[in-house]
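Example complex used in Figure S2.
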Amino acid sequence: MKCRLPSGGCVDRSKPLKFTFDGKTYSGYAGDTLASALIANGVHLVGRSFKYHRPRGFLSAGSDEPNALVGVGSDSARYTPNLRATQVELYDGLVAESQNRWPSLSLDFGGVSNLFSRFLTAGFYYKTFMWPAGAWKALYEPMIRKAAGLGKAPVSPDPDRYTQVYAHCDVLIVGAGPAGLAAALAAGRSGVRVILCDEQDQLGGTLLSERKAIIDGEPAADWLARAVQELASRSNVTLLSRTTAFGWYPHNFLGLCQRVTDHLGEGRAKAPRERMWQVRAREVVLAAGAIERPLLFPDNDRPGVMMAEAARTYLNRYGAIPGSKAVVFTACDSAYRVALELKESGVHIAAIADVRSSPRGGPWIERARAAGIDVRPSTVVTATYGRLHISHADLTDETTGKSETLPCDLLLTSGGFTPSVHLFSQSRGKLVYDEGIKAYIPGESAECERSVGACRGVFDLGAVIANGFSGGLDAVRAAGGKPAPEHKFPVFAQSLGQDGVIGLASKVVKRGGRTWVDFQNDVTVKDIELATREGFRSIEHVKRYTTTGMATDQGKTSNMNALGIVSQTLDLPVSTVGLTTFRPPFTPTTFGIFAGQSRRELFDPVRQTSIHDWAEENGAVFEDVSLWKRARYFPRHAEDMDAAVKRECAATRQSVGIFDGTTLGKIEVVGKDAAEFMNRMYTNAWTKLEPGRLRYGVMLREDGFIMDDGVVGRMAADRFHVTTTTGGAARVLALMEDYLQTEWSDLDVWLTSTTEQWAVIAIQGPNARKVLQPLIQDIDISPEAMPHMSVREGYICGIPTRLFRVSFSGELGFEVNVPMGYGRGVWEAIFAAGKAYDITPYGTEAMHVLRAEKGYIIVGQETDGTVTPDDVGLSWAVGKTKKDFVGKRSLARPAMTAADRKQLVGLLTVDPKVVLEEGAQIVVDPREQIPMTMIGHVTSSYWSAALDRSIALALVRGGRARIGTRLSVPMPNGPITTEVVPPVFYDPKGERLDG
Amino acid sequence: MLLITCPFCGPRPEIEFSYGGQAHIERPKDPMSLDDQSWAEYLYIRSNPRGIHAERWRHINGCARFFNVRRNTITDEILATYKMGESPASCSEELDLSAKGGAVR
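Predicted assembly (1100 residues):
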């Protein structure tokens, strides 16, 4: 580590660590970031830029870093692209690589795009790649994506764990620099519940890089240690380091991402990799600090060009020396402090170029000159040189116009500080422009929060700490706590003033070379000027056209400069130009924390019936129906689905089949006014339905379209057993509750979901009664005593049952409802009793075929939310004499009775072997020119074993009047001719229902 | 995520609730007596204000009750929650709050 100070900083020199970058092994120390370790090894070239493949180095030392994006991870599962090397904590064995270069970082063929830069200006993809049509998708886009871009996404499933926690607190403090720490001390001493979070591995913020300041009578580092110790000792304070507050959501709800184990190395910890904190805070204190702004000058992107404060951080916090010969280019006093501290550590300061003609901070000039530094007022950098690292810089005196070329390997810049108002802006607080510090600062709050310290434009350390402490007390008061006593922290630190510029510092800056504004998206001053010349005025439009501020760093270092250039070009005040919107996340977050535990089998709940295991043991193939697993068919030996379904259908029609209907939704409707409620909710009339009878019910939405259907049993005068479709259960209950609670609260009715309480076993086929007979107690199931569409209560195998006589197959049928836990036992008993009749389990596929042969509709297949009862031939189920029910008034609208509405019909293909495709469109004349007039579509289509031919149901415009005619279904291999027939294919008289 | 005060259960996070559309739209007592235009208005026409909006929410993953909310759609501030059939407590300051964006307190 040739560029490491022998002592000082927060790194632990007793713990050396090995790591590799682009395959080469280096060493660093515990406490290093990847960036500080590379700088300590003299490595500055770390990436190629997004668009032009320009060599890039470290610009900053924190989360605002636009250039030093690296891929970290030793395998394809744990590889994480686009990490900021300035935030990657070093661990032993860390594997990192640069991105967007080939074949290597120093010899990158992609750099040829640099030579074509004149064709790649703002909006180039809107202009250049327009011809020929089609080439964009096939040629240009893939080519550009390959050449431009960032890291590669990992390809293997993520082996790490991510968790999510909810937390509540009285005061959440974001940022643990001097302001945040002071706020935490105030809130902590007040006894309220406090969470303090900071994105860095150590609390302290800028204090971690502080050499000189004295706080409360002791050096900053000692004060920091004591403050952290006090906070850690308080049970009411939770300290979260490595935790980024990435988003603000309404009502003081903040998302924090805690990186729990990344710093320990891959797969070395039992704890989760990351944890998402969802914090509801009564009050928030934002102490997010400020981001140093680059000054703009030609070729300001070479490795070795760095933010001044970043150099100070590398030097003081990590003991890493960023260069040996530095030129400082500044618009404010703070860079003088950096220069002096670098010089103390042996870095030669070639010159300080100050854009100000008479720098306000007189003492700083004197200090610098006293230290033998060449300070040049009214001087700007007008050019830089060096292929992979800066070697020289031109300094031009604005007053004389005289230039001088100085050799250097480090060029530090500071254009002042931009308060970090990201979270404040996300909270929808109003920003106001402060002309004095050339920055937007928080104005009126929209939520329960206040900003303290640098993020509200307070920069001097003493003021920052005082502001933080009083902000903490204010938050305690607002949260209803009793604030701790005031505390004064005397601070000895030299004032840095608050000068700064945005946009171009001087007109002398040559227009020849390219001057980068947004490093990560490769946007130059010229691009922004071009956008304004082309008529873009709104900063939001300039942003999207040039892509400035749209990279993964969201313009942390570039937005204000872009704004300044637009303002300078249009000659408008900055506050008039406006500001682009800040959006979450503050820094990129993993998908992992959002997914949390919701992966694989926990991604969605799985609902299984109590008969599920039997079906699985008997070879069922399952399908997903909403969250349910339903047995689709039961293949025997090597049967495919078609063969199995044919066999299952035939067995049911000829003898008896058994089917698991448990997934049907069930709602118990109980109460004095239950019948009246049913009358209002369903189209049917219920008043006269006697206890012990079933009825097929149709439910509409208020707009008159079918929403659900199902068989309803009247168990008693005041009790209905309502069934719904499998997918519609929750929707139906919600609609019922809606009307009951908000329109008809006078009705004495209770609704209870009983879907999970009943297992339902359907026994269908001519031998159904014979199978059940010996198992039933206390119910006479003879045809006379228990006719079609009746329900009886009694016992089966000693288990209480609600026995329905009902058919969804057209055969004699029963549905046995037993308490859920008995489902499998009763199923097996019925199955054993049915052996003599070769009882056959069938799945949903055969169920569909059997019902389609009978023309029974399935809601959601024959209906799509635009279908009335009459459209599907259910007008018989609509109580004509009822005064009102949900949807009745809508059925009377003219459009609902038009003759050309789509109506349910049957289709029989002229070639009986051809099975139509569901969803296929129907036309009258297949020779019509495309686009043909489509008059309907196929809703259900199957091979019917019973009829030994294909059948289909369809919705066709004016369909019932077309029965007897022929229509066509155009398909890629030619039109298919079909006959239009009534929608009941099998046993149209319903004689088989009685066995 | 909104913090919604269920009039039956107290303050709870938004994920416990489902949205129920605009509030105070009463189903006509005798729908068949309405002409098509009036019925269509009842069915389909809803307000979409920038500012104070009366809306229904249901504490679906809690007590399952419907209730009413007055919410500022600009700031998401919730001014009042109240039971079905009730009217909100005095909303005379609504316009002021709407004008200045209203802090959520």
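The mean pLDDT of chain A is 94. The first strand of chain A starts at residue 12 and ends at 21.
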